[in-house]
């Protein structure tokens, strides 16, 4: 079974631009969550989607948004990029919307904002 | 403030020894706690989950304990190998909302041949 796929692998953007990242979950997984990972803050929860509905949202500004499609694929968008948005963005899928359901991560999109 | 702390950012041990990693949390009462491994440039990989009513969980050379009174989980790797070198993360879903996980700061383990 194919794992979680994230595209693109690397992105370089300029401050003020916007960016869209894509995530294809493991087949059959309906829950997709997004995390931001930085050296200073570690892994931080952005949001989670289940059955095309946002179920949880982390403490990030409204510039960060996402959506999930009927095939469970998900995208996240960051508008008006800031230098501090440079990070590894990780997508994770899970079979169930439950706290005992393991997360299966992709290898992330490395975003650099200049 | 809510926080999950893992012992020392870096841990170096000799091959064959047992590595013990610590995860301490405050202000939570999680029903489950998970451990992940992350290699450089890769996403975390799930290793083990332990429930609050389980004192210990084992998988091959891995062992996890969960002390809800101390608010602490210990992660042990026995007979460590250089291939075990990675960053290890603990994670919990404090409000059991389903997939809103808080991750620990991570411990970078290096096993020296």
The 3D shape of chain B can be described as globular
* Overall pLDDT confidence of chain B: 91
Number of helices, where a helix is a run of at least 4 consecutive DSSP H or I residues of chain B: 0
Largest interface: A-B, 29 and 28 residues
Strand content of chain A: over 45%
- Written as H for each helix and E for each strand, in order along the chain, the element string of chain B is EEEEEEEEEEE
What are the low-pLDDT stretches of chain A, counting only 5+ consecutive residues below 50?
Answer: none
Low-pLDDT residue spans of chain B: none
Number of strands of chain A: 11
- The amount of beta strand of chain B, in percent, is over 45%
Average residue-wise pLDDT of chain A:
95
Largest sheet of chain B: 6 strands, mixed
The quaternary structure here is heterodimer
Largest sheet descriptor of chain A: 7 strands, mixed
The number of distinct helices of chain A, counting runs of at least 4 residues, comes to 0
Q: In which range does the helix fraction of chain A lie?
A: under 10%
Q: Specify the overall morphology of chain A.
A: globular
SSE string of chain A: EEEEEEEEEEE
Question: What is the structural class of chain B?
Answer: mainly beta
In total, the number of strands of chain B is: 11
Question: Which range best describes the helical content of chain B: under 10%, 10-25%, 25-40%, 40-55%, 55-70% or over 70%?
Answer: under 10%
């Amino acid at each position: 079974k194919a794992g979680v796929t994230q595209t693109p692998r690397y992105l370089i953007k300029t401050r003020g631009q916007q960016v869209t990242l894509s995530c294809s979950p493991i087949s059959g997984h309906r829950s997709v969550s997004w995390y931001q990972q930085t050296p200073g803050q570690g892994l931080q929860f952005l949001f989670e989607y289940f059955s095309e509905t946002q179920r949880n949202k982390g403490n990030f500004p409204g510039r960060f948004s996402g959506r999930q499609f009927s095939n469970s694929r998900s995208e996240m968008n960051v508008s008006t990029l800031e230098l501090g948005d440079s990070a590894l963005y990780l997508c994770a899928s899970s079979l169930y919307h439950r706290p005992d359901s393991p997360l299966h991560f992709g290898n992330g999109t490395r975003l650099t904002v200049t | 403030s809510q926080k999950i702390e893992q012992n020392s950012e870096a841990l170096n041990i000799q091959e064959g020894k047992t590595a013990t990693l610590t995860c301490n949390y405050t202000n939570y009462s999680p029903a489950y706690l998970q451990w992940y491994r992350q290699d450089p440039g890769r996403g975390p990989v799930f290793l083990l989950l332990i429930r609050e009513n389980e004192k210990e969980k084992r998988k091959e050379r891995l062992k996890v304990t969960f002390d809800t009174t101390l608010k602490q989980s210990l992660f042990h790797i026995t007979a460590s190998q250089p291939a075990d070198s990675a960053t290890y993360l603990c994670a919990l879903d404090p409000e059991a909302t389903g997939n809103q996980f808080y991750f620990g700061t991570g411990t970078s383990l290096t096993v020296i041949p």
